[in-house]
Design goal:
alpha+beta; FAD/NAD(P)-binding domain
Length: 385
């Protein structure tokens, strides 16, 4: 007898996992499928910064929702959530102006934001350099997670909490199609499962299931490079740390009145050409993640990005990071690239097939912050709740 579920989700990264989470929480019988033994792509190859403050519009609301959900789960099960805040550090007049404008926006929304003077900033983050730091905007309610742990811990929590939730790992889906009143999901080896509905949240790999649809879309992939120091036990640098280049890049700041008049200083031009904006985050093991960069290619042409790391990009990031902070960046433990899909024109790619199969990919760099909130709303729509 063929098993039947209320929902099958293909892809166990953050976006797929939280679709499964909210459906299971609503009492649906849910199966989550992951092609690898454990997720290995964008959800685990990032900083683990949950920064609603950097989002705008509905994505800010999704981020706020996700932050509170993560905190709530952490109270019941350790999924590596730390409530240690986010900070954006301004290094010049333009960046300072945007800090003040963004704070004014969040004051009207009731979203707590604190301006830190240089003295206050250096007292809170003594590893930062006074020569770089002019002022900062701090969000005490924001959290970080450990990307190499978080999603795996969430799966453990779901398996222990929802009797109506199942997960199959190392399971490659070869076909997903509407079959009568059901969705038929076929896996490598021929096993076939049925569901009332299916969500495809497999990143840019959805092209393997729907190649004709895929060819019509304006989807790209971004390659990001990051580095990690060896443990620095004497360093205390809690929270998500964004810098002037982050202020110049994040969408919340781009909507501030002063953004249109910003000029890029000559010393930042090469960094911006590689999409570099320096982020710093100390992990629970004392290591510090430094990054990141952004290079783009059309999905299906990822080979053009190369699979090797660009040492020049790493050198640029380390040089800029050393201008900002004073800790040992010479003793690195690893460097890696992460990849995520994004839509060239829309904030996310959504497509429904006969109101049975729901493709949702290309969330870009918002996945860790916004997936939980977006998925909660999407599951409500999918099941007409």
């Amino acid at each position: 007898m063929v098993s039947k579920y209320d929902l099958i989700v293909v892809g166990a990264g953050a976006l797929g996992t939280f679709h499964a989470f909210h459906a299971a929480a609503a009492g649906k019988r849910v199966l989550l499928l992951e092609k690898d033994q454990r997720p290995v792509n964008a959800t685990v190859r990032n900083f683990g910064m949950v920064i609603a403050s950097g989002m705008s519009g509905k994505w800010f609301d999704y981020g706020v929702y996700g932050t509170e959900l993560y905190k709530s789960i952490q109270q019941r099960f350790d999924v590596s959530v730390r409530n240690n805040g986010s900070v954006y550090i301004a290094s010049d007049d333009d960046e300072q102006q945007l800090l003040h404008e963004l704070k004014a926006t969040y004051d009207t929304k009731g979203y707590k934001a604190e301006l830190l003077s240089q003295t206050q900033l250096l007292a809170k983050y003594p590893a930062m350099k006074a020569s770089y730091c002019r002022e900062a905007l701090y969000f005490p309610q924001e959290v970080s997670v450990e990307p190499n742990l978080f999603i795996h811990k969430v799966h453990e929590y779901m398996l222990s909490s929802f009797t109506n939730f199942e997960m199959k790992r190392a399971t490659v889906v070869t076909d997903c199609s509407v079959s009568g009143s059901d969705v038929a999901v076929t896996m490598a080896g021929g096993e076939r499962l049925l569901a009332e509905r299916a969500v495809i949240a497999s990143g840019h790999e959805f092209r393997l299931l729907f190649p004709a649809l895929f060819k019509e879309q304006k989807l790209s992939v971004s390659k990001l490079q990051m580095l990690r120091t060896k443990p620095l036990p004497k360093l205390a640098m809690a929270g998500n740390i964004g810098t002037g280049l982050s202020i110049r890049r994040y969408e919340a700041f781009t909507e501030c009145p002063g953004f249109a008049n910003m000029k890029t200083p000559d010393h930042l031009l090469e960094l911006e050409s590689y999409g570099i904006h320096i982020l710093l985050k100390q992990a629970i093991d004392g290591t510090v993640i430094i990054g990141d960069s952004h290079e783009y290619a059309k999905i299906g042409e990822e080979e053009n990005l190369g699979y090797q790391l660009n040492q020049h990009i790493n050198d640029l990031m380390l040089k800029e990071a050393s201008r900002i902070a004073d800790f040992d960046m010479t003793n690195l433990s690893e460097s890696w690239a992460g990849y995520y899909g994004l839509h060239d024109q829309e904030e996310i790619f959504e497509h429904a097939i006969e109101d049975k199969i729901f493709i949702t990919v290309g969330i870009g760099g918002k996945g860790m912050t916004c997936s939980a909130g977006y998925a909660q709303e999407n599951i409500s729509k999918i099941f007409n709740q």
